Every structure is written in C-alpha cells, then in structure tokens.
Amino acid sequence: DEAELRAHFEATVAADRRVEPRDWMPDGYRATLVRQIAQHAHSEIIGMQPEGDWITRAPSLRRKAILFAKVQDEAGHGLYLYGAAETLGADRDELTRRLLSGRQKYSSIFNYPTLTFADVGVIGWLVDGAAICNQVPLCRSSYGPYARAMVRVCKEESFHQRQGYELLWTMMRGTPAQRELVRDAVDRWWWPSLMMFGPPDAASPNSARSMAWRIKRHSNDELRQRFVDMTVPQAERLGVTLPDPELAWNEERGHYDFGTPDFAELARVIGGDGPCNAERLARRTAAHEDGAWVRAAASAHAARRAARERA
Ligand code: 3HC
After folding, report:
1. Fewest beta carbons less than 10 Å away: which of 24, 86, 144, 177?
2. Is the CB of 204 under 6 A from ligand 1?
C-alpha cells in the first residue's frame, strides 16, 4: 500500500541509493524533477545560440573546430536531459511548447549578448566553470537517470571550461587590444555568472524540498561561494581583475568574501526582461517551425514501418 511505498522511497533517498523510473515516487518529487530537468535541458539548447554566433567568425580553423565541438556537445547535453525528463513521463513536444510559450524557463546567463570573441573564452571559463560547480553535485542526485546524465555532461564540461581558459590565456599574452577585449568580457560576464546559481537561499522556494529529496545536494549560496573560491585564483593566474571591490580572502571563514549580486536583475532576466530574451526565444521558435517537416517525415516513416511490420 502507499504507506509502504512511501517508506521504501524515503529509505532509498536516506540511504543515498537511486530512485529509478519504475519506482514509486511522490507526485511532488516527480513534478520538481520534471521542472528542473526540463529547464536544464532548455538551458543547454538555448545556450547554443550565444556562442554559436561566433562559429562562422572564429579567428582560426582551430578555434572554429573547438567552438563547433563545444556547441555540438551542448545539443547533446540537451538531448540526454530531455531523455531523462521522458523517463518521468514528460512529453518532449509539451516541454518544447512550454519553453516557447515562456511557461518554462532556461538559465538566465544565456540572455546576455556575446559581443566579441573574448566572450567565447569567458563563457567557457566562467559560465561552464559555474556549470561544473552546479552539475558535479547533481551526479549524486537521488534520481538515477538525472545523475547518470550528469556524469557524462560533467566530463564534456571540463573540456568546455579548459578550452575557454586556454583561449583567454592566449589572448592575455597577445596584444594590448586583446587584453582589453578580455577585461571587457570579464566585466560583463562576472556578475551574471554568480546569478546563474539562483536567488539567495533565503529567497529560494524550491531548495528546502529539493535538498530533502537529495535532488539538490548543496544550496544556491554554497555553490556560489564554491565557484568564487575556485575562480579567484584562476583570475589571478590569468592576470585579470574581477569587477568586485569587495572580493577579499577571509582567513577566518576560509573563503573569499564577495559583493552581493543584483538579484533584482536576476528576477528581471528570469521574468523575460534580459538583453536577449526575445531574440533567443524567437530563434528557438523559428528553428522549431523550420524543423516541423523533419518531424512530420520521421513520424510518417515510423508509421509506414510499423504498418509493414504488422502486415
Ligand atoms: N536562471 C533561470 N531561472 C532560475 C535561475 C537562473 N539562473 N535560478 C533560479 N531560477 C528559477 C528556478 O527555476 C525557480 O523557478 P521555477 O520554480 O519556476 O522553476 C526560481 O527561480 C527559484 O529558484 P530556486 O532556487 O527555488 O529553484 P531551484 O531549486 O530549481 O534552483 C537551480 C535553481 C540552481 C538553477 C536549479 O534549478 C538547478 O540546479 N538546475 C540544474 C542546473 C542548471 O540548470 N544549470 C544552469 C545552466 S545549464 C548550463 O550551465 C550549460 C553549460 O553547458 C553552460
């Protein structure tokens, strides 16, 4: 009966074992996983746009090949995650409809413009660096398909972060103009990267339940702090100054103190009022409409093949 099923579910989560698609789970657990996994998948797919704009304008064949591989990886991450959402009974077409109608979101970070090629390096270093901080704990999420998707994503994410840092390393040893491009890009992306981790814990409506169900293993503020602690030494080695006058090592805490991100800006960007929200959704909508004939042809082919097998 349901009491026994619930007790078994709770014992599984408490023992850090995995909940699998066929296991009984509370409706709220299923719903919050579909919500988070779908938004994670949407983020990967929309995230292809900011960097994708630079594939045709990369400064060398090597940079073009690296960027192309990274953007292709993001598409793959989206597909793993839509697949994980489908194991919970979600319908992929319905998730796309919710994204295109604004009922489901994607990460705020992808609503900022990529103005120069230095942005490609800074996105790899800061945005994929933040993603690694957020996604490594998700490899231990209580829901099996999500955790397993994250293991593969994190392996590819390390290449994304490394290639971004190496690009900036090269530019910082280039001309003064290249160093200026890096400084400008770091100034534009630093605070939005901190906002990626979500609102502060005190204003995070989903965290308590997500942590109780061991979907989320650390709070938004903990991961934000972990990202700052990891990134400041990298910025020093790179020779860039992060745009936060309050940034300072706190020996007592064993962490860096840093300023407060503009969470009002985060709320505006999540709400649709960021620099590129309309453009990102318009391009995703156009791609979906342009691809309608492919979906129709694939469905017709599948139907004909099923009819042949029945005959
Ligand atoms: N962008 C958009 N929405 C955000 C957000 C952000 N940066 N931060 C929080 N939100 C939304 C949440 O989705 C939630 O809204 P909802 O209830 O309508 O879904 C609301 O703001 C309140 O936030 P909570 O902290 O209560 O929500 P969560 O517990 O879901 O925590 C999260 C937010 C930390 C982003 C969590 O959802 C998460 O870990 N998601 C999976 C990882 C992910 O999406 N990473 C981001 C980008 S993907 C990526 O990095 C690609 C890489 O290759 C570059």
Report:
1. 177
2. yes
Tell me if 192 CB under 6 Å of ligand 1: no
Neighbour count for residue 115 (Cβ, 10 Å): 12
Q: If you measure from the C-alpha of residue 295 to the centroid of ligand 1, how many angstroms do you get, rounded to a whole number?
A: 29
ipTM of the complex: 0.97
CA angle 60, 61, 64 (to 5 degrees): 90
**Residue 42 confidence (pLDDT):** 98
Instruction: At 13, list the tokens.
Output: 């989560």
Residues paired with 143 in a beta bridge: 19
Residues 278-300: b if buried by 16+ CB within 10 A, e if exposed: eebbebbeeeeeeeeeeeeeeee
Q: Whose CA is nearest to atom 10 of ligand 1?
A: 198
pLDDT at residue 228, as a whole number:
98
In angstroms, the first-to-last Cα distance of the chain is: 43
pLDDT of 251: 98
Q: Output the CA–CA distances (angstroms, integers) from residue 157 to 44, 112, 163, 220, in the order listed.
A: 11, 20, 10, 20
pLDDT, position 311: 87
The two tokens of residue 63 are: 């940079």
> Please, what sign has the CA dihedral across residues 252, 256, 259, 261?
negative
Instruction: Show the low-confidence residues of the chain (pLDDT under 70).
Output: none
Per-residue confidence (pLDDT) for residue 56, from 0 to 100: 96
Q: Phi and psi (nearest 5°) for 248? A: -160, 140
Q: Are the C-beta atoms of residues 30 and 89 closer than 8 Å to each other?
A: yes
CA 30 to centroid of ligand 1, rounded, Å: 17
The β-bridge partners of 250 are 255
User: CA nearest 111: which of 258, 283, 291, 289?
Assistant: 283
* Number of other CB atoms surrounding residue 98 within 10 Å: 17
The pair of three-digit structure tokens given for residue 208, joined into one six-digit string: 């308590």
Side chain identity at residue 72, one-letter code: Q
Task: State the virtual CA torsion across 206, 209, 212, 216 in degrees, nearest 10.
Answer: -30
